[in-house]
Amino acid sequence: MNKALRNPWTYAAFVVPTLLLYALFFVYPVIVSFIYGLYRWDGVSPKVFIGIDNFKRLLQDAVFLKALGNNLYFMAFSLIVNIPLVFLIAVAISKVRRMRGFYKSAVFIPVVISTATVAILFGVLYDYESGLINQALRLVGGDGWALEWLSKPNLAMLSILIANAWQNVGFFIVLCLAAILNIPREITDAAKIDGVNGWSETRLVTLPLIRPILFVILLLTVSGTLKVLDIVQIMTNGGPFQSTEVMSTYMLKVGFRSLELGYGSAIGVAMFVITMIMTGVLQRMSKSEEVQF
Predict the structure, then answer these.
(1) By its UniProt entry, which Pfam families does this protein fall under (predicted)?
(2) Rounded Cα distance, 284 and 276, in Å
(3) What is the pLDDT averaged over residues 64-76?
(4) Domain residue limits at 243
(5) In DSSP terms, which residues pair with 49 in a beta bridge?
(6) pTM of the model
(7) Per-residue pLDDT for 10 more than 80?
(8) How many CB atoms within 10 Å of residue 159?
(9) Which site in 31, 130, 146, 233 is 20 to 30 Å from 40, CA atoms measured?
(10) Domains held by the chain: number
């Protein structure tokens, strides 16, 4: 066994297939998308080379810029609301002594539900006539309290954000909770001896020690909100009046409905570049270091 592990071909047998799959399903599509972005093409007729005109068009496309703004709105909500909520719920569960496993399972259940199911479920809940939310509001304040959650431009995006948060925060809660429970008891006991209790313990001990995990959650949140697609596509399809249009839904409409595959590929490349820039900036800004106990 030791002789096999010293053989470099042993490592190549495991690494090379992974690299080939990575190149096939990630590197190759990115390169092909960039190449297609240099052409005007409907998928049937011969491609016409137009250089970087498709990429220039992005900067003048009001719909694309609005979609980008909606992605940034999605990101801001997730960073300002979801991540603090994840941390607080994880801390609360970590303080529970009884039925902790039940609470962990309860918050994680939405994660295993498909996004299509979540979108349909919340679509039913948001229904103006028969939705449970409006039925409850009518019981409190009458018909005047009922809202058109997915039909009003100022409410549609918020409605999607709530549904998306309900589905995804459970995964991050479990990550954060695992990091909290991994903190050695000696550290927390020493902090209590020094008079650090309650919220002070959370702020001075727990938060600094789980900072690397929080940064991972931050990166996953940023990349996820920049490529969000399915929940928006099913709940509103970018409407009403493009108030919930995001880059992914716009790319699909341009590429497969308008049959502008070249311009759709340019949008895909722009999404990739924006995501890489955002994650790169976060990594440069982050001063977190690996914590060793």
Answers:
(1) BPD_transp_1 (PF00528)
(2) 12
(3) 95
(4) 53-118+156-285
(5) 39
(6) 0.87
(7) no
(8) 23
(9) 233
(10) 1
> Which residue is it, tokens 């690397």?
212
Q: How many of the other CB atoms lie within 10 Å of CB of 91?
A: 18
pLDDT of 3:
62
53-60 helix and 62-77 helix, angle to the nearest 10 degrees: 70
- What's the token pair of residue 63? 């719909």
Element (H, E) at 49: strand 48-49
Residue 169 to residue 82: CA distance in whole angstroms: 7
Burial (CB count within 10 angstroms: exposed 0-12, middle 13-18, buried 19+), residue 27:
exposed
Residue-averaged pLDDT of the chain: 88
Tokens at residue 70, please? 């909606």
How far CA 176 is from CA of 20, 165, 179, 293, in Å, comes to 33, 16, 5, 17
Query: In this structure, what are the phi and psi dihedrals at residue 49, rounded to the nearest 5 degrees?
Result: -75, 125
What the block records as the tokens of 247 is 């880059």
CATH number of the structural domain spanning residue 108: 1.10.3720.10
Question: What is the distance between the alpha carbons of residues 282 and 219, in angstroms, rounded to a whole number?
Answer: 8
Among 246, 213, 219, residue whose Cα is nearest residue 232: 246
First-to-last alpha carbon distance for the chain, in angstroms, is 33
Task: Please name the residue that has the structure tokens 């994680």.
Answer: 108
Confirm whether 232 is domain-assigned: yes
Task: Kindly state whether residue 36 falls inside one of the protein's structural domains.
Answer: no
